[in-house]
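Hi support team,

I submitted a single chain yesterday and got back a structure, but I'm not sure I'm reading the C-alpha coordinate output correctly. Could someone confirm the output below corresponds to the sequence I sent? I've pasted both exactly as they appear in my results page.

Thanks,
R.
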Amino acid sequence: MEYIVKTENLVFEYQVLPTEEGGETQREAALAGVDITVKQGEFVAVLGHNGSGKSTLAKQINCLLLPTSGTVWVKGIATADGDRAWDIRSSVGMVFQNPDNQIIATIVEEDVAFGPENLGVAPAEIRKRVNGALAAVGMTQYAGNPPHYLSGGQKQRVAIAGILAMRPDIIVLDEPTAMLDPIGRREVMDVVKILNREEGITIIFITHFMDEAVQADRVIVMEEGKIAMEGTPHAVFSRIDELKAIGLDVPQCAEIGLRLRQAGIDMPTDILTIDELVEAICQYK
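Hi R., thanks for writing in. Yes, this is the structure output for that exact sequence:
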Protein backbone atom coordinates (compact mmCIF):
# COMPACT_ATOMS: atom_id res chain seq x y z
CA MET A 1 0.00 0.00 0.00
CA GLU A 2 1.43 3.37 -1.01
CA TYR A 3 -0.46 5.30 1.65
CA ILE A 4 -1.87 4.87 5.13
CA VAL A 5 -4.12 7.98 4.94
CA LYS A 6 -5.52 9.44 1.75
CA THR A 7 -8.21 11.99 0.93
CA GLU A 8 -9.68 12.62 -2.49
CA ASN A 9 -11.68 15.79 -3.26
CA LEU A 10 -12.66 15.95 0.42
CA VAL A 11 -15.43 18.43 1.15
CA PHE A 12 -16.97 19.07 4.54
CA GLU A 13 -19.70 21.61 5.19
CA TYR A 14 -21.00 22.79 8.53
CA GLN A 15 -24.63 23.78 8.93
CA VAL A 16 -24.97 27.40 10.02
CA LEU A 17 -28.25 28.11 11.79
CA PRO A 18 -30.18 31.25 10.79
CA THR A 19 -29.72 34.31 12.96
CA GLU A 20 -33.31 35.43 12.41
CA GLU A 21 -36.53 33.54 12.93
CA GLY A 22 -37.71 32.05 9.66
CA GLY A 23 -34.31 32.36 8.02
CA GLU A 24 -32.81 29.53 6.02
CA THR A 25 -30.09 27.23 7.30
CA GLN A 26 -26.86 27.91 5.46
CA ARG A 27 -23.96 25.57 4.71
CA GLU A 28 -20.39 26.71 5.16
CA ALA A 29 -17.49 24.76 3.68
CA ALA A 30 -14.68 24.03 6.15
CA LEU A 31 -12.91 21.77 3.64
CA ALA A 32 -13.19 22.49 -0.06
CA GLY A 33 -11.67 19.74 -2.17
CA VAL A 34 -8.70 18.53 -0.13
CA ASP A 35 -6.35 15.91 -1.59
CA ILE A 36 -3.60 14.56 0.65
CA THR A 37 -1.61 11.36 0.88
CA VAL A 38 0.30 10.25 3.99
CA LYS A 39 2.71 7.31 3.83
CA GLN A 40 3.31 4.74 6.55
CA GLY A 41 5.85 6.05 9.09
CA GLU A 42 5.75 9.63 7.82
CA PHE A 43 5.73 12.70 10.09
CA VAL A 44 3.46 15.32 8.51
CA ALA A 45 2.83 18.76 10.00
CA VAL A 46 -0.33 20.65 9.05
CA LEU A 47 -0.23 24.45 9.36
CA GLY A 48 -2.83 27.15 8.98
CA HIS A 49 -4.36 30.04 10.85
CA ASN A 50 -7.61 29.64 12.81
CA GLY A 51 -10.47 28.67 10.51
CA SER A 52 -8.23 27.28 7.77
CA GLY A 53 -9.68 23.78 8.14
CA LYS A 54 -6.76 21.96 9.74
CA SER A 55 -8.64 20.73 12.83
CA THR A 56 -11.60 19.69 10.69
CA LEU A 57 -9.21 17.65 8.58
CA ALA A 58 -7.82 15.98 11.71
CA LYS A 59 -11.30 14.91 12.82
CA GLN A 60 -12.02 13.41 9.41
CA ILE A 61 -9.13 10.97 9.80
CA ASN A 62 -10.59 9.47 12.98
CA CYS A 63 -14.25 9.41 11.79
CA LEU A 64 -15.21 12.09 14.31
CA LEU A 65 -16.54 13.88 11.22
CA LEU A 66 -17.55 12.30 7.92
CA PRO A 67 -17.20 13.87 4.46
CA THR A 68 -20.03 15.88 2.96
CA SER A 69 -18.58 14.64 -0.33
CA GLY A 70 -15.33 13.09 -1.47
CA THR A 71 -13.55 10.25 0.32
CA VAL A 72 -11.17 9.63 3.20
CA TRP A 73 -9.30 6.32 3.34
CA VAL A 74 -7.42 5.02 6.38
CA LYS A 75 -5.44 1.82 5.76
CA GLY A 76 -7.56 1.28 2.66
CA ILE A 77 -10.88 1.65 4.52
CA ALA A 78 -13.27 4.47 3.59
CA THR A 79 -14.35 6.40 6.69
CA ALA A 80 -17.88 6.62 5.27
CA ASP A 81 -18.18 2.84 5.71
CA GLY A 82 -20.03 2.86 9.03
CA ASP A 83 -19.42 -0.85 9.60
CA ARG A 84 -15.65 -0.25 9.67
CA ALA A 85 -15.56 2.83 11.92
CA TRP A 86 -14.27 0.80 14.88
CA ASP A 87 -11.43 -0.59 12.76
CA ILE A 88 -10.39 2.93 11.79
CA ARG A 89 -10.61 4.30 15.32
CA SER A 90 -8.54 1.38 16.57
CA SER A 91 -5.83 2.38 14.09
CA VAL A 92 -5.93 6.15 14.64
CA GLY A 93 -5.24 7.72 18.03
CA MET A 94 -6.24 11.33 18.67
CA VAL A 95 -4.50 13.75 21.02
CA PHE A 96 -6.25 17.07 21.57
CA GLN A 97 -5.21 20.55 22.64
CA ASN A 98 -6.25 20.35 26.30
CA PRO A 99 -5.01 17.20 28.11
CA ASP A 100 -7.48 17.82 30.94
CA ASN A 101 -10.26 16.94 28.50
CA GLN A 102 -8.62 13.60 27.72
CA ILE A 103 -7.45 12.40 31.14
CA ILE A 104 -10.28 10.76 33.09
CA ALA A 105 -8.72 8.63 35.86
CA THR A 106 -7.38 9.75 39.24
CA ILE A 107 -4.09 7.86 38.89
CA VAL A 108 -1.74 8.11 35.89
CA GLU A 109 -1.33 4.37 35.23
CA GLU A 110 -5.10 3.82 35.51
CA ASP A 111 -5.69 6.48 32.90
CA VAL A 112 -3.21 4.89 30.51
CA ALA A 113 -4.91 1.51 31.08
CA PHE A 114 -8.38 2.85 30.26
CA GLY A 115 -8.10 2.50 26.47
CA PRO A 116 -6.76 -1.07 26.38
CA GLU A 117 -9.38 -2.13 28.93
CA ASN A 118 -12.11 -0.87 26.63
CA LEU A 119 -10.54 -2.77 23.74
CA GLY A 120 -10.90 -5.99 25.74
CA VAL A 121 -7.16 -6.54 26.17
CA ALA A 122 -6.16 -9.20 28.72
CA PRO A 123 -5.00 -7.85 32.13
CA ALA A 124 -1.42 -9.15 31.79
CA GLU A 125 -1.11 -7.50 28.37
CA ILE A 126 -2.62 -4.26 29.72
CA ARG A 127 0.10 -4.10 32.39
CA LYS A 128 2.75 -4.66 29.74
CA ARG A 129 1.30 -1.96 27.50
CA VAL A 130 0.93 0.57 30.33
CA ASN A 131 4.52 0.08 31.44
CA GLY A 132 5.77 0.33 27.87
CA ALA A 133 3.71 3.43 27.05
CA LEU A 134 4.79 5.28 30.19
CA ALA A 135 8.42 4.40 29.50
CA ALA A 136 8.10 5.62 25.90
CA VAL A 137 6.94 9.08 27.04
CA GLY A 138 9.31 9.28 30.01
CA MET A 139 6.60 9.15 32.67
CA THR A 140 7.31 5.84 34.45
CA GLN A 141 8.21 7.52 37.73
CA TYR A 142 4.80 9.22 37.80
CA ALA A 143 2.73 6.03 37.28
CA GLY A 144 1.16 6.20 40.75
CA ASN A 145 0.65 9.97 40.84
CA PRO A 146 -2.64 11.85 40.50
CA PRO A 147 -2.65 13.61 37.08
CA HIS A 148 -3.76 16.94 38.57
CA TYR A 149 -0.37 17.25 40.28
CA LEU A 150 1.45 17.16 36.93
CA SER A 151 2.57 20.04 34.73
CA GLY A 152 0.81 20.73 31.44
CA GLY A 153 3.56 19.05 29.44
CA GLN A 154 3.51 16.00 31.71
CA LYS A 155 -0.27 15.73 31.39
CA GLN A 156 0.00 15.83 27.62
CA ARG A 157 2.62 13.08 27.73
CA VAL A 158 0.20 10.98 29.82
CA ALA A 159 -2.52 11.61 27.22
CA ILE A 160 -0.12 10.43 24.50
CA ALA A 161 0.76 7.35 26.59
CA GLY A 162 -2.95 6.52 26.85
CA ILE A 163 -3.20 6.56 23.06
CA LEU A 164 0.07 4.66 22.66
CA ALA A 165 -1.16 1.85 24.93
CA MET A 166 -3.89 1.12 22.39
CA ARG A 167 -1.19 0.39 19.79
CA PRO A 168 -2.38 2.68 16.97
CA ASP A 169 -0.67 2.81 13.59
CA ILE A 170 -1.33 6.56 13.33
CA ILE A 171 -1.43 9.33 15.93
CA VAL A 172 -3.16 12.59 15.02
CA LEU A 173 -2.23 15.44 17.36
CA ASP A 174 -4.48 18.49 17.11
CA GLU A 175 -2.46 21.47 18.41
CA PRO A 176 -1.24 19.45 21.43
CA THR A 177 1.22 22.14 22.56
CA ALA A 178 -1.04 25.19 22.20
CA MET A 179 -1.70 25.45 25.95
CA LEU A 180 1.83 24.60 27.09
CA ASP A 181 4.85 26.66 28.07
CA PRO A 182 8.12 26.29 26.10
CA ILE A 183 9.37 23.49 28.38
CA GLY A 184 6.12 21.55 28.00
CA ARG A 185 6.16 22.06 24.24
CA ARG A 186 9.69 20.68 24.03
CA GLU A 187 8.75 17.66 26.15
CA VAL A 188 5.86 16.80 23.87
CA MET A 189 7.84 17.31 20.67
CA ASP A 190 10.65 15.08 21.96
CA VAL A 191 8.14 12.30 22.63
CA VAL A 192 6.49 12.71 19.22
CA LYS A 193 9.83 12.44 17.41
CA ILE A 194 10.78 9.31 19.35
CA LEU A 195 7.44 7.64 18.57
CA ASN A 196 7.86 8.43 14.89
CA ARG A 197 11.54 7.64 14.42
CA GLU A 198 11.99 4.74 16.85
CA GLU A 199 8.52 3.19 16.96
CA GLY A 200 7.62 3.87 13.31
CA ILE A 201 4.24 5.42 14.18
CA THR A 202 2.77 7.68 11.50
CA ILE A 203 2.34 11.20 12.90
CA ILE A 204 -0.07 13.88 11.66
CA PHE A 205 0.70 16.97 13.71
CA ILE A 206 -1.63 19.98 13.58
CA THR A 207 0.11 23.10 14.82
CA HIS A 208 0.54 26.83 14.42
CA PHE A 209 4.09 26.84 15.78
CA MET A 210 6.56 27.06 12.90
CA ASP A 211 9.47 25.65 14.90
CA GLU A 212 7.46 22.46 15.45
CA ALA A 213 6.59 22.09 11.78
CA VAL A 214 10.29 22.39 10.88
CA GLN A 215 10.87 19.01 12.56
CA ALA A 216 8.43 17.14 10.29
CA ASP A 217 9.23 15.20 7.11
CA ARG A 218 6.63 17.16 5.18
CA VAL A 219 4.54 20.30 5.73
CA ILE A 220 1.01 20.94 4.49
CA VAL A 221 -0.25 24.53 4.65
CA MET A 222 -4.01 25.09 4.63
CA GLU A 223 -5.91 28.24 3.72
CA GLU A 224 -9.71 28.60 3.51
CA GLY A 225 -10.28 24.85 3.51
CA LYS A 226 -7.79 24.11 0.73
CA ILE A 227 -4.18 23.04 0.42
CA ALA A 228 -2.16 26.22 -0.19
CA MET A 229 1.33 24.68 -0.08
CA GLU A 230 2.89 21.28 0.40
CA GLY A 231 6.47 20.02 0.52
CA THR A 232 9.50 19.52 2.72
CA PRO A 233 10.05 22.09 5.48
CA HIS A 234 12.91 23.64 3.51
CA ALA A 235 10.77 23.92 0.38
CA VAL A 236 7.73 25.40 2.15
CA PHE A 237 9.51 27.82 4.46
CA SER A 238 11.63 29.24 1.65
CA ARG A 239 8.37 30.76 0.33
CA ILE A 240 8.40 33.46 2.98
CA ASP A 241 6.42 36.11 1.10
CA GLU A 242 3.62 33.65 0.25
CA LEU A 243 3.38 32.43 3.85
CA LYS A 244 3.17 35.96 5.17
CA ALA A 245 0.55 36.83 2.56
CA ILE A 246 -1.81 34.26 4.08
CA GLY A 247 -1.10 35.45 7.62
CA LEU A 248 1.47 32.89 8.77
CA ASP A 249 4.83 33.48 10.40
CA VAL A 250 8.05 31.72 9.44
CA PRO A 251 10.64 30.03 11.68
CA GLN A 252 12.81 32.54 13.53
CA CYS A 253 16.00 31.48 11.76
CA ALA A 254 14.30 31.84 8.37
CA GLU A 255 13.24 35.36 9.36
CA ILE A 256 16.81 36.24 10.38
CA GLY A 257 18.09 34.88 7.07
CA LEU A 258 15.57 37.08 5.25
CA ARG A 259 16.64 40.17 7.18
CA LEU A 260 20.30 39.47 6.37
CA ARG A 261 19.49 39.10 2.65
CA GLN A 262 17.56 42.35 2.75
CA ALA A 263 20.67 43.97 4.25
CA GLY A 264 22.68 42.81 1.25
CA ILE A 265 24.31 39.77 2.86
CA ASP A 266 24.31 36.67 0.67
CA MET A 267 22.40 34.03 2.67
CA PRO A 268 20.66 30.81 1.49
CA THR A 269 16.88 31.09 1.09
CA ASP A 270 16.11 27.83 2.91
CA ILE A 271 17.65 28.40 6.35
CA LEU A 272 15.49 26.78 9.06
CA THR A 273 17.65 25.89 12.06
CA ILE A 274 20.22 27.58 14.26
CA ASP A 275 22.92 25.22 12.97
CA GLU A 276 22.11 26.13 9.36
CA LEU A 277 22.11 29.84 10.20
CA VAL A 278 25.45 29.65 12.03
CA GLU A 279 27.01 27.67 9.17
CA ALA A 280 25.79 30.19 6.59
CA ILE A 281 27.15 33.12 8.60
CA CYS A 282 30.50 31.40 9.11
CA GLN A 283 30.81 30.75 5.38
CA TYR A 284 29.94 34.34 4.44
CA LYS A 285 32.86 36.31 3.13
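A quick pointer for reading it: The CA atoms of residues 121 and 204 lie 26 Å apart. Let us know if anything else looks off.

Best,
Support desk
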